[in-house]
Amino acid sequence: MTRQRSLRVRLLTTFGLGAFILSSLFASLTYVGVHHVLVSDKINSDLKQSYVNAALVRSTLYTAPPNLPSLLNSIESATASNVLVQTHHQWLSRSHFASTNDVPAALLELVRAGHPAYQTLVVNGQIVFVVGVPIPAVETQFYEVFHLGVLDRTLRTLLQLLAVGALFTAAVGFAGGNWVARRAVRPLESVSLAAASIAEGELTTRLVVVQADREVQQLTQSFNDMVEQLVNRLERDARFASDVSHELRSPLTTLATAAAVLQSHQDELSASGQESLNLLLADLSIFQSLVEDLLEMARSDAGAVPLVIETVPAVELVRQCLRSAARRHGLSEPVVEVERDVSNPLVAVDRRRFERVVTNLVDNAHRYAGGTTAVRLCYDEGQLVIDFDDAGAGVPDEERDAIFERFFRGRAAHDRSLARGTGLGLALVRDHVRAIGGHISVLTSPEGGARFEIRLPMVEEAL
User: Fold this and answer.
1) What DSSP line would sit under 197-251, residue for residue?
2) Where would a tag sit more exposed on the chain, N or C end, judged by fewer CB atoms within 10 A?
3) Could you read off the pLDDT of 218-251 as tens digits, one per residue?
4) 426, part of any domain
5) Residue 44 belongs to domain with CATH number
6) Is 56 in the same domain as 95?
7) pLDDT digits (tens, 9 = 90+) for 103-130
8) pTM of the model
């Protein structure tokens, strides 16, 4: 099964990632722009300063060569750079902290060839900017090394601040996404919970929203109107079925009385008359059962029959209901098998509804599956399990859910050789089991027939 994606998570992820991507893009563009501006300005400034310093060196070499070391130290103090002077491949002079290793060989060759050159490189873990200026008038080359450590630290600090800003913006985006997701999803969750409650039979459930947005108020009002119309329609249908059932009971009683009179004089009828009477009695019995089932179902749907919950011993209750069902249909009482670990469990049920459940299951097995072979009681996951096994061919997998639908009769609807029923018995069974807090399903019994499994919650002690 594919795991469904959460709308809340998707909104949260969209806002958070969107904020992170936008803030990262903004931070990157800012860093690149500032880096370009600062580095370009620094290089241009240092380059101009180097040409000025080279002119001073040339003047000193013309006028007072012995003053060159003092000039270089003065330049170093003024510009925070290291200065070197080379003549005929020999280092003529340099400032206090200058090192010939700071000047790369490729740059030396270019300057010796009479071309000004500059290069940015890393020396001993520090970024430096090296400028070489040829002074052909005195056959000398001037080199100045500028240390860009301060600029590098500034750029690193800027990068850290931008990264922190991007993370903070992403966090704000996630927080905003969470707020928006909660605001957007909360009404949907309320609708979902209300719909699930209504599906379970709580038809009085309505949505209540206080200080909501206009769209949410419209959704709430539309949902409540829909539920109100649904409840009204169900009530009308239930009243209609109840009224029809009531109206049919009187003529059915008259027909049953007349049929009983005819049956008492059955020997006086011809063979064809007797056969017609038998068919009439069979259909009349089915008709009476249909009317009774419809009447009970209508009362149940309308809530006209309240639950009377009692806490009773489960084993004795099952035995009594089976005994009553067997006498009602003139059948032998099915065998009740109780597992050893089942001592004396208590269940909270409506006796009348539970007896109807047992009666319908026994009658269904008698009509369609050769009768009930056994009734077994056991424990499973803290619940009492009651299994009704029959001697039939079982229920096909594709019919195991539909068999509890109203008026579903499966093969019996097309096979005239099978006993005819109303198609409401198992639907009533499911409704009654649900009403008392249980669950029913159809499985396959170990003997090969069908197994109707009822699960009921147990109670610790009598209420």
Assistant:
1) HHHTT-TT-----SS--HHHHHHHHHHHHHHHHHHHHHHHHHHHHHHHHHHHHHH
2) N
3) 888 888 888 888 888 877 776 776 676 667 767 7
4) yes
5) 3.30.450.20
6) yes
7) 888 888 898 888 999 888 887 777 888 9
8) 0.50
